[in-house]
Amino acid sequence: MTIASEALVRLHRIHRQLGDLRGRLARGPKQVAAGAGNLAEFEAEQAKIKEVRTKTKILADEKQLHLRQREIRLEDLQAKLNSCGSNREYQMLTEQIAADRQATSVLADEILELLERLDVLDAEVAQAEQHVAASRESLAALQEKVAAEAALIEADITRLAADLKEAEKALTGDVRVEYNRLARTRGEDSLAEVDDQVCVGCFQTITPQMYNELKLQKAVFCKSCGRLLYLPEGS
Ligand SMILES: [Zn+2]
Fold this sequence. Notes:
The chain is mainly alpha-helical and 235 residues long. It has 4 helices and 3 strands. The protein has helices at residues 5-82, 87-168, 173-186, 208-215, and strands at residues 191-195, 198-199, 228-230. The protein has a 3-stranded mixed β-sheet, covered by helices on one side. Strand 1 and strand 2 form a beta hairpin. The radius of gyration is 40 Å and the shape is rod-shaped. Zinc ion is lined by residues 192, 199, 201-202, 204, 222, 224-225, 227.
């Protein structure tokens, strides 16, 4: 049998287009997975900062409660001081009040620091929420875009698969069997052009006999890489 090199050129072109389309089809879900990964990171960051904020708030509340207890105790001590009967007791109470005031002042400073920290954390929580919302929005837009593209690509694949079937009719007999075996696993790598007596698939030089057979439009497989060879159009 003879095979016009135009038929093989066309067959290879369809394989390449199909390979390209399948590659594009596979990229979509990978982009979506990457977007979902980004969103998960932002959500984890948000959860972390919220937890820190909650713990800081609990600590501030505890310290404020503690501060109120200390203030009540100071009032008690002050009342005792005002009604105390002896110098010794007066002296003890005065020292106690001074020590308590010192401790209360330290506690009040700690509370102030915690409240300032809470203001910063509130801003960080708001920012983390914005990141999550923006990431969620862009993921939804990406999913929509990928789905729309996939529908177009799948339609092109269906059309090209029909073209491929038609183009494959140029191959019959043993050549068809061998080609089918190659095409199943290698797709566009089942064919290669011969440029200046070199297989473009593996860059090995073909024999003069192979070249002559190609010129006679016979089916020739590369001895090195196994691809079905063809001469460029117009050669
Ligand atoms: Zn080769």
